[in-house]
């Protein structure tokens, strides 16, 4: 740490230093004796420094003042009266900013690579919060206005328009209105309801700011490698500049929440319906809420956390096991808690058949009552406590960020003297509840849940409501337009123009120049030590380090592929990569089922059948976490991962052996897994951005690609038919599933990574005999799969292809364009392309300003993928894809040709963004180990490849950038060299098609999602119609929605006959 000295006359006193007993983390709490501003620093090694600047905010209306204020704070401050300055500075200092408005607080975030950048932005940021400009012009454009066409607009207004009528929002708000009476702040929509935002005044926001944004109501939480002395000097200097703008320390101030009316207890149980707009009326949701224990009661809060994970934490816990796995009444059962003076407990059951909502809600409460009426499974309760303890330790190790929420909550509800923060030092409360008897647990459960009054909301999808909202809104806008008349509209257009001009004053270069770009040396990346064993050594340079020596000593004749990453950690992370190339094409879509089923299957152990619940129980005991999925860095592979403690290393290896070689393929379990996958498909198909990805996968890759075979459009028909087959001919499905497992589970197909403190492992290499004994290890390691071999002509030679896919579920549009790019890590143009994309797409950069800034889309994204050799450009949530596309085209072509020029700030900003991205990739020790493995094993590049690239990136010249743009980005906007995919609201289709044709996309085609589905040749006797008949009375049948979308079952109406 640099040796900065704290000035002797600092106004910040150290309230306390807290060393956590269960992990190597220290909190230091400071408080200003001058303003009362508070600050907690969580020391942690790594490249990232994160800041959370939180203010307790309480309001008793739905005006949206808290949320609008959050936006306006970014529009300029006392000494920096420029919109966007904060973000411009941040993007030069390896930083990014963000903010959120919760019901009880507003938090602003600053994440930075390295302390130097953070220190530079901090005082500027704080000034924006304490003395923002809050101008009328800013409020007009950011919050709400009526534009020249008579439509309501504004950044916050549009944001709330997008969420106000979503099922989750509507249900949550209705539940909170029932839980909290008038006058209790928790019942209000702090984001702002649209009808209130339309009448919100700047003065109301200013008043709210004055009341709430006082230094004494603010707490700064910093995590990472923080220079404490430098921090205190900065804060002292900052206070000096605002001391005359804020109320004095002794001025009367009512602490939000703490000094407000307490929340009254619920006096009765209420069950209400809540309609939400939705075209597909088949599935709804159940939500239940309770008022829980006092937030200051540490023991009760800990007990509640453990009890919730006992009830609802995994597939073997009571709620999930009964409602999801066994009775299949919903696709998932989940819980959450809100920290309030009394904790609030929530349960959500998702994807419940609409007709059964009331019945399922009753079932939930009967289940809770039954559970509390009978002895609990105390050994499992203790498992939950132990697991909770291990998870806390793991999360502390992974990121200091883990503490941001509890520290903010302490600021909101805890005593000012820091005495409750001190209780973080240990987790003694877990020792206390460890001693609780069955009776104590059941009394606790009855008190807060099964016998407690509660509020239940049945979320009912409504097509009629969907229509009514659209019609009412149309009528309202029309009336508004008529009332304003041509003259009125013209005035409004001018007013908006004026406000924009006031906001968009250019930032003088001289101001930006006052902030030099920090040195990249100030970013301290985490380094790991690599060691290799067996097949992992082949073709690689021999390593000479202390860890390699440990490995060599234990290696013996082991040939299994083992890659070690040594990091200081109390946990070991094992990841096994498996190739999928040997899997026959016609079985590829079964991979989704394999992934879903892998950890919830019965197995044979010592000649005995062990049910899946027992397996999961053991896994929970032995690990802190486990998972399986397709590998992100190469979707032709899958990974199986475990996080555990060094003592359980060998146990986990034996467990892996059981899972790979002794699983029982049970039709009942496979059926349950299939149902879980199929229930979620309708909602996957409702997402504009996911469907863009799914269609792209279907078009770009051939059938041998596993990434493609696991996409929604490959699995929907195939797995539906598989479910039918599983009922009629289970043996056939089991035989195929067995074939699939056998093709994957071969020693020559495994690449294993072990990351952790390798010195703490007794037999890092020889322990793996538990997996490999009696297996045939003579075959050579199979090569990695090159995704390029699986590309179709569509992706190999992009150009002259354009598809519009209308979706009834979205009211906006999404696009992805791709053209030929770069396909290797060593390509000489790569560094220039990376800088070009970062410069174009950065926050407040050319594309941001041209597209997002003009309301043409929520965001754009430039990308390149070396594994496919394609360059891409995406536009998300756009009201008009064509306009967004044309605006982006103009920018890219302008910068490529040199008619537009990047200033030096833009290029510095681009490099800064690349540095931040690198830090984001490996913020923690575990992530650094993961990156090192992926680089060396999957991508075949050096472990510090990104550092080498950073050096190249800094040397890129403007000329090279223009060249890269001309070669790889301009072709994106030429119909002859680009492929274009769009998902959009139905109503947009016709005009878009016309516009795109006008722009040269002569081959544009309008297609349905179903046109891209692929059944991989799987057929069922009688076809899908027969399945419809057969499953008519099936409880978990979800065909209704599928059919309406794919339109493939004209005979489905017969099903009801
Ligand atoms: Zn917002």
Report on this model:
There is one protein chain. This protein is an alpha+beta fold and 1057 residues long. Among the domains are: 529-787, Cytochrome Bc1 Complex, Chain A, domain 1, CATH 3.30.830; 797-1012, Metalloenzyme, LuxS/M16 peptidase-like (Cytochrome Bc1 Complex, Chain A, domain 1, 2-Layer Sandwich), CATH 3.30.830.10. It is built from 39 helices and 28 strands. The chain has a seven-stranded mixed beta sheet, sandwiched between helices. Strands 15-16-22-17-21-20 form a six-stranded mixed beta sheet, sandwiched between helices. Strands 25-26-24-27-23-28 form a six-stranded mixed beta sheet, with helices on both faces. Strand 5 and strand 6 (105-113) form a beta hairpin. Helix 2 runs antiparallel to helix 3. The longest helix is centred in the middle third of the chain and has 41 residues, at 463-503. Zinc ion binds next to helix 1 and helix 5.
What's the SSE blueprint?
Elements: E1 12-19, E2 26-32, E3 38-43, E4 48-56, H1 65-72, H2 85-92, E5 95-101, E6 105-113, H3 115-130, H4 136-142, E7 145-146, E8 152-153, H5 155-163, H6 167-179, H7 194-197, H8 202-212, E9 218-224, H9 228-242, E10 270-277, E11 283-294, H10 298-312, H11 318-326, E12 332-338, E13 342-353, H12 357-373, H13 378-398, H14 404-413, H15 428-434, H16 438-450, E14 455-462, H17 463-503, H18 509-513, E15 529-533, H19 546-555, E16 562-566, E17 572-579, H20 591-597, E18 603-605, E19 608-610, H21 612-622, E20 623-630, E21 637-644, H22 649-661, H23 667-685, H24 688-700, H25 706-709, H26 712-728, H27 730-744, E22 750-756, H28 769-772, H29 793-796, E23 801-807, E24 813-820, H30 830-841, H31 846-852, E25 859-865, E26 870-878, H32 881-897, H33 904-921, H34 925-938, H35 945-954, H36 958-968, E27 978-985, H37 989-998, E28 1005-1006, H38 1023-1030, H39 1039-1046
Parallel strand pairs: 3-9, 10-14, 16-22, 23-27, 23-28
Antiparallel strand pairs: 1-2, 2-3, 4-6, 4-9, 5-6, 7-8, 11-13, 11-14, 12-13, 15-16, 17-21, 17-22, 18-19, 20-21, 24-26, 24-27, 25-26
Helix pairs in contact: 1-8, 2-3, 2-33, 3-9, 4-17, 10-13, 10-15, 11-12, 12-16, 20-23, 23-26, 26-27, 30-33, 30-35, 30-36, 31-32, 32-36, 33-35
This protein binds zinc ion.
Pfam families: Peptidase_M16 (PF00675), Peptidase_M16_C (PF05193)
Domain Peptidase M16 N-terminal: 60-137
Domain Peptidase M16 C-terminal: 200-377
